[in-house]
């Protein structure tokens, strides 16, 4: 009889005659097709003829096998693409981690931070750099959304702050310039962000900051164990073409503590009550631990946030910077 290679792609039935008067063998061959090629066969044989219902059932089995081959191949390709994606994401995470500033270079301050993306990469970013020998600037930004697109926009905003910032430009003016450039670049894709620019004068000890739609800055004063909240001093960046910003001047004393953060903390939701973690809880836990070192303060706050959320996966990026005044670096 004809070989398998000669068979068509349709199901075929044939009979094999055996010598000596033995009963004939009835065969049924159903080819399994995949990507317009025959990948295998279902071969059945018995001593009586296959009826039409049985042929249809075997044909369905062959079609199902072909579908499974396609599914397995597609899944393998998806797995391969996912592995490549994860490898690229890992590279981006390394780049983000490498871009984190070294705050130990800022004399007279103890500065700690936490950086916890909700996904593999973050729409939050923060940066720190010297404008001159005695002026240091911290930028904290939260781009709308999270994930790859937000990370890309965040990287552009980081570059804008780096290129615009200079010693003679105070935080409010820096935000205004970045906002103008950012609006020109991303107005069509509906991305915006909150940001805070915090500038340290290491000679005078003053801190000047301006905030673009960012959560309130919390300041703890050690001498009277009090705290103050400083609300945003202007609109979001990238939202309005023209925007102006005010700024706040702080004169911290030794032991005073400043907390900068993104809304991933205050907007953490309790899965039990549905409540937000909120500003009130954040201020309480910050004030209660403000006499500790900044690293320990952050650990206390994050521990309480995780406990409040019942240790479920976070839904938004979380970034926090804690700054404690030690003394004049030039004393």
| Total helical elements | 6
The N- to C-terminal Cα distance equals 101 Å
Q: Strand fraction band?
A: 25-35%
Largest sheet: 5 strands, antiparallel
Q: Count the E strands.
A: 13
Average pLDDT across residues?
Answer: 86
SSE class: alpha+beta
Weakly predicted, low-confidence segments? none
Helix content: 25-40%
Radius of gyration (Å): 33 Å
Strands across the major sheet, in which order?
Answer: 4-13-12-9-10
Which geometry do the CA atoms define?
Answer: elongated
Order of helices and strands: EEEHEEEHHEEEEEEHHHE
Q: TL;DR of this structure?
A:
The protein has helices spanning about 50-100, 150-165, 170-185, 265, 280-290, 295-310; strands spanning about 10-15, 25-35, 35-45, 110-115, 125-130, 135-145, 195-200, 205-210, 215-220, 225-230, 250, 255-260, 320-325.
Structural description of this entry:
The chain is α+β, with helices and mostly antiparallel strands and 331 residues long. Helix content is 34%, strand content 28%. It is built from 6 helices and 13 strands. It has a 5-stranded antiparallel beta sheet with strand order 4-13-12-9-10. Strands 5-6-7-8-11 form a 5-stranded antiparallel beta sheet, covered by helices on one side. A 3-stranded antiparallel beta sheet has the order 1-2-3, with helices on one face. A hairpin with a 2-residue loop joins strand 5 and strand 6. Helix 2 packs across helix 3 and helix 5 packs antiparallel against helix 6. The protein starts with 11 loop residues before the first strand and ends in a 6-residue tail after the last strand. 31% of the residues are buried. The model has no long low-confidence stretch (mean pLDDT 86).
């Amino acid at each position: 009889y004809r070989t398998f290679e000669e068979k068509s792609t349709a199901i075929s039935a044939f009979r094999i005659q055996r010598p000596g008067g033995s009963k004939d063998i009835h065969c049924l061959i159903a080819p399994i097709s995949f990507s317009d090629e025959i990948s295998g066969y279902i071969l059945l044989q018995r001593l009586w003829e296959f009826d039409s219902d049985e042929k249809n059932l075997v044909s369905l089995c062959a079609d199902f096998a072909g579908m499974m081959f396609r599914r397995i191949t597609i899944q393998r390709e998806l797995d391969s693409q996912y592995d490549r994606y994860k490898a690229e994401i890992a590279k981006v995470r390394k780049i983000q981690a490498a871009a984190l500033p070294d705050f130990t270079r800022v004399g007279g301050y103890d500065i700690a931070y936490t950086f916890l993306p909700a996904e593999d990469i973050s729409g939050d970013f923060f940066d720190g750099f010297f404008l001159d020998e005695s002026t240091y600037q911290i930028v904290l930004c939260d781009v709308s959304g999270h994930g790859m697109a937000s990370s890309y926009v965040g990287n552009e905003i980081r570059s804008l702050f780096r290129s615009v910032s200079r010693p003679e430009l105070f935080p409010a003016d820096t935000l205004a310039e970045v906002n103008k450039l950012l609006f020109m670049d991303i107005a069509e894709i509906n991305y915006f962000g909150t940001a805070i620019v915090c500038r340290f004068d290491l000679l005078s000890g003053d801190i000047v900051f301006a905030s673009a739609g960012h959560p309130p800055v919390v300041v703890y004063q050690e001498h009277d164990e009090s705290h103050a909240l400083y609300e945003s001093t202007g609109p979001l960046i990238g939202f309005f073409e023209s925007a102006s910003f005010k700024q706040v001047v702080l004169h911290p004393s030794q032991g005073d503590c400043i907390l900068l953060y993104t809304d991933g903390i205050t907007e953490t939701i309790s899965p039990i009550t549905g409540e937000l973690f909120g500003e009130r809880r954040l201020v309480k836990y910050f004030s209660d631990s403000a006499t500790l070192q900044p690293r320990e303060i952050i650990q206390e706050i994050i521990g309480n946030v995780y406990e409040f959320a019942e240790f479920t996966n976070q839904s938004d990026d979380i970034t926090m910077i804690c700054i404690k005044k030690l003394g004049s670096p030039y004393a």
